[in-house]
Amino acid sequence: MSRLTLPLAKILKWPIRFLVKTKLLPENPVESLSINTKQPVVYVLKTESSTDLQVVAALSEMMGLPSPFEPLYVDGEQLPRFIALQRARVFGSSKDLTSDAIQAGLRLLSLHQKKSTIDVQLVPITICWGRDPGHESARIRDLISNTETPSMFRKILSVFLSGRDNLVRVSRPVSIRYMANEHGVDQTTAHKLIRVARIHFQRQRLSATGPRLPNRAQMFTSLMASPGLRKAIDDEARTKKISLVEAKQNARKLMHEIAADYSNVLIKMSDNFLSWLWNKLYNGLEVTNGQAVRELSDQGYEIVYLPCHRSHMDYLLLSYAIYHQGMVPPHIAAGINLNFWPVGSIFRKGGAFFMRRSFKGNKLYSSVFREYLSLLFNRGYSVKFFTEGGRSRTGRLLPPKTGMLAMTVQTALRGCERPIALVPVYLGYEHVMEVSTYTTELKGNTKKKESVGSVFKAIRNLRDYGHGYVNFGEPILLGQFLTSHVPDWRNSVSQEEGPKPQWLTPTVNKLADEVMVRINSAAALNSVSLAGMCLLNADKYAMTRQELEVQMDFYVALQREAPYSAEKVILKMTGKEMVDHLVQLNKVKSHTDTFGEIISLEQKDAILMTYYRNNILHLYILPSLVASILISHEVLDKQSLIKKIKMFYPLIKNELFLRELDIEAYVEAILQALETQGAVNIEGESVKALGHETAGFFQLQLLERLSNDTLQRFAIVLRLLEKQDSMSRSELEKKSQQAAQRLSELNGINSPEFFDKKVLASFIAALREEGLVTLDDSSSLETTSEVKALGQEITFLLRSEVIQSIHSLT
Fold this sequence. Notes:
Elements: H1 5-11, H2 13-19, E1 22-25, H3 29-32, E2 41-48, H4 50-63, E3 72-74, E4 77-79, E5 82-87, E6 97-98, H5 101-114, E7 121-129, H6 140-145, H7 152-162, E8 166-170, E9 174-175, H8 176-183, H9 187-209, H10 216-224, H11 227-240, H12 244-258, H13 264-281, E10 284-288, H14 290-298, E11 302-307, H15 313-324, E12 331-335, H16 343-349, E13 352-355, H17 363-379, E14 383-384, H18 403-413, E15 420-429, H19 435-442, H20 452-460, E16 467-472, E17 476-477, H21 478-485, H22 504-521, H23 527-535, E18 542-544, H24 545-561, H25 575-584, E19 589-593, E20 596-600, H26 603-632, E21 636-637, H27 638-653, H28 663-676, E22 680-683, E23 686-689, H29 695-705, H30 708-723, H31 729-747, H32 757-769, E24 773-775, E25 781-783, H33 785-797, H34 800-809
Parallel strand pairs: 1-8, 2-5, 2-7, 10-16, 11-14, 11-15, 12-13, 12-14
Antiparallel strand pairs: 3-4, 5-6, 7-8, 7-9, 15-16, 15-17, 18-20, 19-20, 21-23, 22-23, 24-25
Helix pairs in contact: 1-4, 5-8, 5-9, 11-12, 11-17, 12-17, 23-24, 23-26, 24-25, 26-27, 26-29, 27-28, 30-31, 30-33, 30-34, 31-32, 31-34
């Protein structure tokens, strides 16, 4: 340790605290990382630096941990409170100076050998002065502001230039006791500790800043040299009968059309703008489970973010959230429709790379895009794309598009240097800016093309949109997924581009479905979605304020006591707070008469509210079916109830991207929650709904109505199958859609997805997968005896007037 380090650090205390603004991740390291405050702590830093130590001192005071300036006494021996892997360079020198880190590690290990009760925690702390990754081609600015192993002069510059953009990441503590017991106390273990720490800091830095930025022209030259693209260029010249020079020019034009032009300067400017924008748009952004993604990055994984697609705002919101989780914003696969002046060039510098809606018929384009994506992965850039392809117009997840996922898997097959982790992301809003246009598009109006005018219109309408939610779901480790489905997939790994293995398409389809399931498992409850579930099922879309508050509390309690998944986010607001919030957002109408306050929806708002309800419908579909069955039977034993739920579950599983569940355990949890909330009565193995005059029955009835639309759609399809002797799948889809559209008009069903052909097709596909219908030699659908039994079961759950309407239509 340098003799000047500690004295200088203490002198710098007040200048550093005045000049430096630090973002700490995680926000509460002691709790999040399970740091034991009763055991000794030693901080591990990459570089011995007075300014870094002063930053750690300020943060340790805030965290309730000892200062790095305090001496550490272990078994009567005084030790320094920190270990630095290297000393700062002398100004003008290019050599790193060795530190006493290995000797310090060996001393700690030796002390643990002497006394078994000692357990010192090594707490790695990464300090990033600014988030600039630098460029592959050296520049003056890189030389001056280099923060990897800076001299005192460089560090002073870093403090002045980047002090307000100081990122500190605290990592999980490493137990010296564990290291001593598992690996011994010799110099080899000390070397291993330091080597692991060096790799850790390198990965932390890469995660926070990303790799050095390439020279764009050199990157294109590198792409042109790849064997796969050379072959595609040769094919282009041959098939189009043009010269090789022209074919290469075509390839370069496509590179310019596709490739991002990432700019750290723009990212920093965007951060300031977006911080203002989110404060203007939302009164809260909640980000959940970011620590799990940071740890994946620390382990060396290539991160691929796979969010659901609600709004154009998704592009900005997720990148902003990732940046504020201490990670570099990803490169984003954006639709070519967003590449219009002036935002196209701005998006490109923000990391967007553009893709056409279809690659068909253009082998050169497909090859250029695939090679570019492979280059991003191999250079260590995180990537983000939307598996749904486009924005959901109904609030439900759309069937996944598999093209980008297939290319991701193919990149792994070409021997990507780093393992790939797919991170599903749930994005939720209390207001989606485009929601009104979605409704008109579902009615058949043409989708408006994005333009400068639409951007200014959106900016002009900025207002308080409530809360936004970013919830990182359970990651999918691609290698593990492939091994579980295709044990010998590594035999297909090759640097050369060859024919697609036969297992690729079915495996990618399974992977895409699993991504959607995990997005839905990470759903976030919010006041608007919950209000939609309540008011849309109430008579005339109106409830007393007290009824609404109680029902919203009821729904939150259901998820708390019978959770659909561990990843979903529970709302912390009470029913009263939620209703106050809704009125403030102008999402509902409130008026008071002599009996009290009434909360309601206008007809136009009811249609829009279905969008938000659909965001979380999957969380409540099985509780709703349980309620529907219980209301339809005076009393029912648990096993009969479970049997009926098992009959319905496979048919709704694909439509709503539900996860695999232990049905018996989940139904039992739902029943216990319903009894706790006073909605059912359980006596031994028998369950029954409470009397019609009780408040509990009213709550159960509103819950039951959530599944009505789904059951009516099922009834339409099953009735058509029962009455038609011979019908093709496309014919069944068409007739089902026509009947559903008619029924929605007759019964005032406001859900736009009620007669959505894709939703109906999903149910018909589920019937085939479950073996309830088959195809004969003429490709007509044939039903089994079980279809009639299923139809009767569903009919029993529907109101008589609905059944009559379906029968008359079919």
